[in-house]
Design a protein that fits this description.
The complex is a heterodimer of chains A (452) and B (179).
Chain A (H helix, E strand, L loop, with lengths): L6 H9 L5 H13 L1 H31 L20 H11 L1 H8 L10 E7 L2 E4 L14 E2 L4 E4 L5 E6 L4 E5 L2 E9 L2 E14 L9 E4 L3 E15 L2 E15 L5 E4 L3 E6 L8 E3 L7 E2 L8 E3 L1 E3 L8 E3 L1 E5 L7 E9 L8 E2 L5 E7 L6 E9 L4 E9 L11 E6 L4 E2 L11 E11 L6 E8 L10
Parallel strand pairs in A: 8-9
Antiparallel strand pairs in A: 1-3, 1-5, 2-4, 4-7, 5-6, 6-8, 7-8, 8-10, 9-10, 10-11, 11-12, 11-13, 13-14, 15-28, 16-20, 17-18, 18-28, 19-20, 20-27, 21-27, 22-25, 22-28, 23-24, 23-27, 24-26
Chain B lengths: L5 H10 L1 H12 L2 H16 L4 E2 L2 H22 L8 H13 L5 H13 L3 H12 L4 H8 L3 H29 L5
Classes of the chains: A alpha+beta (452), B mainly alpha (179).
């Protein structure tokens, strides 16, 4: 480095990757303490992206004038083609009308027989029938057919479907599943969002099942599997049997054997890659400020102390034979921030940091599945307002997992040994202005203070 | 309170496009990756994976998402993060704190500033930021010493910054040609 370098030149050398470790420390200190240095870096960054924008426009105009694509021959190896990723805007537009399409398609009457039967229902769910009618709630025993769309609406909801060959499919809270026409004799579903678990019938050869998500199409062959999906990302894990998975984006196809997983994301323009399911971890943090992807909640403006704030969203919770109840809930999925299974242990604790504007009981809960297995239910605990003080200021509560009560003890009476799928916090009936800033799963005897 | 509509989200994102892309560039130092990341952020916002009450909530989420996407891009390209999280946060905070001119107006101002700059300056910027060459490679191509190159790039950024700000100020007071 030249000792006469100005701070700006030092920053440019830094961006060039030409500094020694000592000089890098100097740059870090400069950027931490000197607003002028940060202003310069921001100006460089803005100019860099604007220069690239102008060049793309220029190159685009040249291509318009010369119908044959320009292929620079004497320019460097790093030249990249103009890439207006219009497909992304197409995806965005398509996603925004998905529900409309679902409703529109249901206006076509169907006489198809039911292909699945609802075998278990818990919590708030509803379905839109193939004749365009929005049913109030799902009930055990009814049959559903192609064109029907199920929604599990509340945090505590789950629905189990029995297929004709005895296999089961389960969806949990905030999931939307559409039943499609069977394809070559294989039952066919589209998971628009949420979580789905599939289990083949015991003791008999299971038929293949086709599952589509916004990012992949999967053929499950006698597989015990789970799928988590959002409009732009899917994670599929195969615990028994196998699956053939095709990525919608590029058509790449992979075989996923037992004990393996595959992740697809619209953000990554890469072929699918199969990986062995990683070892579980027993510490997990929501890291909202790093992975701001909630499954329920609204993003709130930052404050001086909290940059990442997720506010509770209203959610109507229709209860059979009674009036509907309003919930105000925030929910986060573990799979969105880590590809490793998160192990729950009875002596672990869930630590929540948040805020409420009004004194009110807050219900904290989580969903779990058997480790590399099927859906295992939900667990909840109510925390009185006295423990969430002071009102209007940030509080932190630490809740031992053993204090959470199982909502479905027939599935699992204790969270010990289960895998965390999602975590939520809510208030019932009244909006307490609940917001969550951070959630952490702390393992037993954890001596490291990882509090942010 | 009502949530931002799809149209309002898109309008805000386009207004903040330069700053969001710049935030991604600070992480990746690749203008094409930064553009991709901006599009990914917009896609996530438009596909309703999250909801926003206000523009400041949208921008808080968008800057964090852009950073996350940038770090993911570095990991996939097996490159190291060059700045600490604390510094990235400071930069994002300042980007959000200072009122922003619409991205279109800024780009138009830069276009005008570049039009009056020497051809060698335009070439330098294209080689460095569009073609992705490091300063040492640009210096070699342009037949300049490396130290002189850093001084030149530094001066060029300073003068462009002043020129862009001047044109934006002028457009504000006179209702001039920049939209």
């Amino acid at each position: 480095m030249n000792s006469n370098d100005s701070p700006h030149e030092l920053l440019l050398r830094h961006l060039d990757g030409r500094l020694t470790p000592e000089e890098r420390l100097r740059v870090a200190e400069l950027l931490r303490t000197d607003p002028g240095a940060r202003a310069f870096l921001r100006a460089v960054a803005e100019q860099a992206v604007m220069v690239a924008d102008l060049e793309r426009v220029k190159l685009g105009r040249q291509e318009e004038l010369h119908p044959r694509p320009l292929r620079p021959t004497n320019q460097g190896r790093r030249i990249l083609p103009v890439r207006f990723r219009s497909w992304r805007w197409g995806v965005a537009a398509a996603a925004s009308v998905t529900l409309l399409a679902v409703f529109a398609s249901q206006l076509v009457p169907t006489t198809k027989p039911g292909i699945v039967r609802v075998s278990k229902v818990t919590g708030s769910s509803q379905y839109f029938g193939s004749k365009g009618r929005a049913e109030k709630a799902l009930t055990t025993g009814i049959s559903l057919g192609a064109g029907d769309t199920l929604e599990t609406r509340s945090c505590d909801a789950w629905v189990e479907l029995k297929l004709r060959d005895g296999s089961t499919i389960t969806i949990a809270g905030h999931s939307t599943l559409r039943i499609l026409d069977a394809e070559a004799g294989r039952e066919h579903f589209k998971l628009l969002q949420g979580s789905l678990w599939g289990t083949p019938a015991p003791g008999r050869a299971a038929e293949a099942v086709l599952i589509q998500t916004p990012t992949v199409a999967a053929e499950m062959r006698g597989a015990q599997f789970d799928i988590q999906t959002s409009p732009s990302k899917t994670m599929l894990r195969v615990n028994e049997g196998s699956a053939r998975v095709r990525q919608n984006l590029d058509g790449s196809t992979v075989e996923v054997p037992k004990g393996h997983q595959v992740a697809a994301s619209l953000s990554r323009r890469e072929p699918l890659a199969v990986a062995p399911q990683p070892q579980p971890i027993n510490y997990w943090a929501s890291d909202l400020w790093q992975v701001p992807e909630a499954i329920l909640g609204k993003w709130l403006p930052p404050t001086g102390n909290e940059r990442a704030r997720l506010g509770a969203d209203p959610l109507l919770w229709p209860i059979s034979d009674r009036d509907s109840v309003m919930l105000y809930a925030v929910a986060l999925a573990a799979w969105k921030s880590t590809e490793r299974p998160v192990l729950l242990q009875s002596d672990s604790k869930l630590r929540f940091r948040g805020r409420t504007e009004r004194a009110q009981t807050v219900r904290f809960g989580f969903s779990a599945q058997k480790m590399r297995g099927v859906f295992a239910g939900k667990f909840e605990v109510d925390v009185p307002p006295a423990s969430l003080r002071p009102v209007g200021e940030t509080w932190e509560v630490e809740l031992p997992l053993r204090d959470f009560r199982p909502l479905h003890p027939q599935l699992a009476s204790s969270p010990d040994g289960l895998e965390l799928t999602d975590v939520y916090a809510l208030t019932v009936k009244e909006d307490a202005g609940l917001e969550i800033h951070h959630i952490e799963l702390v393992p037993p005897n954890d001596s490291n203070d990882r509090s942010p | 309170m009502n949530m931002l509509s799809e149209q309002e989200i898109l309008q805000s994102l386009m207004k903040w496009r330069t700053r969001l892309s710049a935030a991604a560039w600070v992480v990746t130092q690749d203008a094409h990756a930064a553009e991709d990341i901006f599009q990914n952020v917009a896609l996530k916002a438009m596909t309703r994976e999250v909801r926003f009450e206000t523009e400041s909530a949208l921008m808080s989420w968008a800057f964090i998402t852009a950073r996350r996407e940038g770090i993911d891009w570095l990991r996939r390209h097996q490159r190291e993060t060059c700045l600490e999280a604390e510094i990235l946060e400071l930069l994002e905070h300042e980007w959000q704190a200072v009122p922003s001119h619409p991205s279109g107006a800024k780009i138009e101002a830069l276009r005008e500033c570049l039009a009056s700059a020497p051809e060698s300056a335009r070439r330098l910027l294209k080689l460095r930021y569009f073609d992705g060459y490091r300063c040492a490679e640009v210096a070699e191509q342009m037949g300049i010493g490396l130290n002189a190159m850093y001084k030149r790039v530094s001066r060029l950024h300073e003068s462009l910054k002043e020129c862009i700000e001047g044109k934006l100020r002028n457009a504000e007071t006179t209702g001039g040609p920049i939209p």
